[in-house]
Amino acid sequence: MTNFGALLEPFTIGNVTLPNRLVMLPMGTELCGEDGRSTPAEAAYYAARARGGTGLVMTGITFVSSEFDPIPPGLARIDTDAHTEGIKAIADAVHAEGGLLALQLTMGLGRNNQYCETLGMEPRSSAEVPWFFDPSVTCRPLAVDEIAKIVAASGEAARRAHEAGVDVIDIHGHTGYLVDQFMSACWNTRTDQYGGSPQNRARFLTEVLAAVKANAPGRPVSVRLSINHRFPGGRTVEETRALLPFMETAGVDLLLCDDGSYEAMDYVFPPYYLGDECMTNAVDGVKEYTTMPVVACGNITPTSGNRLLEEGRTDLVGIGRGLIADPDIIVKIVAGQEERIRPCIRCNQLCVGNAFMGKALGCAVNPAVSHELDGPIATADALKRIAIIGAGPAGLEAARVAGLRGHTVDVYEKSNRLGGVLHPAATPDFKRQLRQMISWWEGELALLPTVHVHFETEISQGAPQLAGVDEIIVAVGSTPLSPPIPGLDSDNVIEVIDAHENPAKVGHSVVVCGGGLSGADLALELAQAGRAVTLVEMADAIAKDMLPLNKISLDARLSSANVTILTGTTVTAVTGEGVLVSGPDGEHTLTCDTVVTAFGVAPATHLVAQLSESTTPVRAVGDCVEPRKVGDAINDAYNLAAAL
Among 588, 623, 586, 591, which residue's Cα sits nearest to residue 604? Predict the structure, then answer.
């Protein structure tokens, strides 16, 4: 077990003392009303993270003005006094749980505002630079008097935050948004007092800081800053260092250090491909150059964050999506229950993915997110005996929730382990957090006295284990598709799941047939292990249903691992030499030692149909209904079991 002494130490920012070193990073919730006012659901969401012991709870993007930057319906705003009440409700809810609240103020998205066209406003920025979403459109530079209006609006927003009882105010200066655009030579080509030298490029920020401090006296002010934009021509660490003295002089009390930009979106929301601590270079790059306390960000776990603190590399630890997955990190650490912290699997599916679609925040592994007002899972009015067939993600989550409801649950798994397809699919090192979910479920089920798991038990129609049960939940997953391609039964062919579980069966040169996410991830895993890999996909792109920002990382890593990717290419036969394919260059053979089939899956419906002939209610969940992503299976299982 880790000694979390460093993480649990208090820390003072200005005149505010945090009870520990954990900061919840700003992330939008999409839980506001159409007019951008906060809702009780949003207040309950933040309050849950305060109740879980988080040292400082930070809200996500909150617009200070709509005059020059369109604000889409549903995003948070504080540009009128009418919005103060909602912010006060959040602050009151957080304070009622003994927590501290920081409100992130957003001066605008500038060239990165995707809603300019749909909401009828021309894109504006620090200078005449291309609009990110259509580079043929040039942004109009903000005039000096318009800058002054945004600064004044920032001051008014700070006044409202102060009146609402917010403890800390954060200025949104990362991701290439408006403040960042002014601070970066790549986007700021002005020749007036707001452009040119580092001091001039920092002027917009320092004027905003002055306005915020004047209107929220005594409130500490933080800045979230991209230290390295991570694209050619973007702001570098060295350029960022030149800005630090002006931020210090202006009175920044805390600096949140991360990387990325819209040009390097995967670093804004780092997926599992980037691994642990993927942005600690950001805090390393500035800590010794500033007196401002710093926050390390980027795929940090409680354990790695504690180590960073012990090593003196940071003053505070920022965790974002990890606190969506589990709001009770500190409470569990204090209770000596580190193993009960639910891991964030860094899939971005229902948190970032929902945000991009304008949907309320969700979570692949924590279906209670955005439903905190519903309270904890309650004991059922009528207790039942429930049989769950299959111990994959859907079956395990259904068992956990049904057990919390007080039902007697028997889980039947035909193999000798938990996890189902999750176990082999999570073999790559970059999926270690997903693998940890299996251990988490195992631990949680062990704490439920009415839940029992039976291994090496295959259930069929008429099985004696089903006698007397009130409900049957079938969660048997999917079966691999096997198209009618000659040679698929050859000795040199192995199925993708088998390849994950038995890498010794895989030769040095490999052709992976099927470029969906399963095939692409295996190709990356094999290539990183030193094999020569070719990935064949009949569509015009691999992993087409993947979240675009995740695919940025996947594509980059496949390239760096020297995976050959053939799209628009059909597998026509497997031979002793390898794979016969037909593509843009005609028909030819890809010679290899091993052929891996990853043609997709179909729902395993046979058992559902078989059992439905009985009088006992049968409910199917997970991939045996429709093969989708793991988060869909978990959320569907949660909702099913919560209703029993």
Answer: 623
pTM: 0.95
Please answer whether residues 198 and 131 qualify as being in contact, where contact means their C-beta atoms are separated by less than 8 angstroms: no
Domains of the chain plus CATH, in order, are 11-374 (3.20.20.70), 385-479+610-642 (3.40.50.720), 493-599 (3.50.50.60)
Q: What is the DSSP letter of 537?
A: -
Question: H/E element holding 638?
Answer: helix 630-642
Per DSSP, 374 falls in state G
Residue 77 phi, psi (nearest 5): -150, 160
Predicted confidence (pLDDT) at residue 325 exceeds the cutoff of 70: yes
Q: Residue 1: what pLDDT? A: 67
- For 40-93, the pLDDT digits (tens) are 999 999 999 999 999 999 999 999 999 999 998 888 999 999 999 999 999 999
Q: What is d(CA 207, CA 483) in angstroms, rounded to the nearest whole number?
A: 64
Which among 407, 405, 412, 411 has a CA at the least distance from the CA of 384? 407
Q: Let me know: does 492 contact 593? Beta carbons within 8 Å.
A: yes
pLDDT exceeds 80 at position 207: yes
pLDDT at 357: 84
Paired tokens of 265: 């979106």
* Mean per-residue pLDDT of the chain: 96
CB of 76 closer than 8 Å to CB of 63: yes
Q: 530: how many CB neighbours lie within 10 A of its CB? A: 9
DSSP 429: G
CA-based angle 301:367:275, to the nearest 5?
25
Nearest of 477, 462, 404 to residue 633 by alpha carbon: 477
Share of the chain above pLDDT 90, in %: 93
Instruction: State the helix-helix crossing angle for 237-250 and 203-215, rounded to 10 degrees.
Output: 30
Instruction: With H, G, I as helix, E, B as strand and everything else as coil, classify residue 47.
Output: helix
Which tokens in the block code for residue 381? 């009015």
Distance, in Å, from the CA atom of 134 to the CA atom of 263, rounded to the nearest integer, reads: 13
